[in-house]
Amino acid sequence: MSSIASDPIEPTVSDGPGPTLHPDCRADGTAEDFTLVQSVDNRGSEFGKQDGVGAREQVLRNQDILPLIFLHSKELGQLDRHGNQESANRQELAQPCGWKAFLASLIVVNKSFFHTGTNLLWHTMDSFAPVLKLLPWFSGEYKGIGSYVYVGSKDWGRFRVYSSCIHHFKIESTPDIVISHDRLLQLLFLHQRPDPFFENLHSITFSSAASQALHMLFLFVGPPLRNLEVNVATLDQQDKFLAILPDLQNKTTSLDTFHYSGPLCREFILHLSNIKTLQSLTMKITTGSRLGASDLEFLRNLPNLRKLELEFEPDLKIANEEAPVSWAEKRGKPETCGWQLELSGMGQNLLHASWAIAPTQLHGVTLQATKFTTNSVVAGLLSQFFTTNQSLEGFSMHFGKTGSLSRRSPLVPVKADKIRRATQALKNHKYIAAFVMSDLPHFTGEHVSSMLQASVPRWKRLKILHFRLHESALVPQDGTKCFPSLTFLSIICEECPNIEELNFQFDDDQISAPASLNWSRPPFPTVHPLRSLSIGTVNRYLEFNIAQKAAIAVYIAGLFPRLKSLTGSSYETWSDIEVLVKTHQQVREWGALDAHTPSKL
């Protein structure tokens, strides 16, 4: 749910019948604090004692229907009189009372309304201030107990009523109230204080703008916490959060998702690896990190991890203290099962990270290259992931803007044995279902194309194959003719019985139908399932006469009778051919064209 109450409203409930709330807004447009509910559990008041005998009264007390009514009221409150939500949002920014005050006025109808409305208004908070103001010793700012005579659990009654409604803290700006370190210690060690402070707090989001209050996370960490997101900008801020990490592993029993952005160090990774409940871990590792490749090995100690996402800033360089192969073998790493691994960064960092974590039972891999990546690194990545992960089902590598880069001069050749290992790893793989390499630079496309042409016919479970150069890829004059002709489509038809999407780079000079077509029998024993085909070429303006287009259309339609979409780099040309393919498909539905064309597959 989105943030419900940036300034949660507390209604006044009187002991008399028919209580009414009139929110008081100051001239500056900000809402005054509403007085907390008086004696919520007072059984002697009229609050909640209405004798509901009719349908209307039953609805007003029904805990299943009331949340729907309140949510609908909230949605209506977010629309202006013309039904425009964006306009209403602008109005609410100017007038904070808005729908919150309206819901606050509803929750005093009866006890059922109170509980339902309070849960909605306090569900997601973007400030600590409202809940801290519930403490009886709070006065203007948080100064600790001071002269207040503290008794024990009775002093926490008002706090518990509302803190139990909070499920998510989303702190994205400088907090209104920051508790000093000494006052925080006093609060943590108060006799009979709630433990945890927030019994239903499941999620915390903390931006770098709120870094001065990072130490206050000690108040919010507890067994119910499931999702934590922390963003820091400096090493000092990282050190503040680092002090809390040991508390996370000791006090959280349900934390399964952690997002972090900021600098990292070995100590950080080590403490993080002790949070055994983690299932999803996302970290954006920024410049200034004191991190070596071997430090990432500790992430293998997370037994329940299912998704690991690491994003390295483009200018960050991970130190490689010792050869990955040697220490990987020396330490005998445990198996990692069922991971989804996502890595983003410069090519060398991707390679270091893949060796450091050394996963062996990955289900899916997504790589994003953010800087110039050599062919040697690409070959190393393919070899690493396909050799050791026989259960790998999905692999994708994206080059983004780097695909428009020209090769460095001179281009360092890749050793023959490295190419051979990568090709063999691809050919031997049996379970790959989706293979994607997008926005490749031309020199990398040349390097990988021959590997794929040798390997794809062996991938019998393949459903998706994308292999395309960047649309602005620079083609050198000495470029090799390594991309296939359209005859590659017949190989796909015969050897890949499950492929449904094909987006491949072809040789511009070989975009034509094969010289001889023999349709004396269907090219495939059953109707091929390919639905989408895209033909990549460097030339954006291929020119064919109508006879050439028709020949290509007949060839493609014969291979893939169920084809629904045909596109290509040369948009107009392939649009014309797509029309001819669909026409050919329609005619085939009516009957055989000639003795050499199969009637229906």
Kindly describe this structure.
The chain has a 15-stranded parallel β-sheet with strand order 1-2-3-4-5-6-7-8-9-10-11-12-13-14-15. The protein has helices at about 55-60, 65-75, 85-95, 100-105, 110-120, 130, 155-165, 180-190, 235-240, 245-250, 265-270, 325-330, 345-355, 375-390, 415-430, 440-455, 485-495, 545-560, 570-590, and strands at about 125, 170, 205, 225-230, 255-260, 280-285, 305-310, 340-345, 365-370, 395-400, 435-440, 465-470, 500-505, 530-535, 565-570. Among the domains are: about 1-120, no CATH class; about 125-135 and about 140-255, no CATH class. The chain is an alpha/beta fold and about 600 residues long. Helix 11 (about 265-270) links the parallel strand 5 and strand 6 (about 280-285). Helix 2 (about 65-75) runs antiparallel to helix 4 (about 100-105). It contains 19 helices and 15 strands.
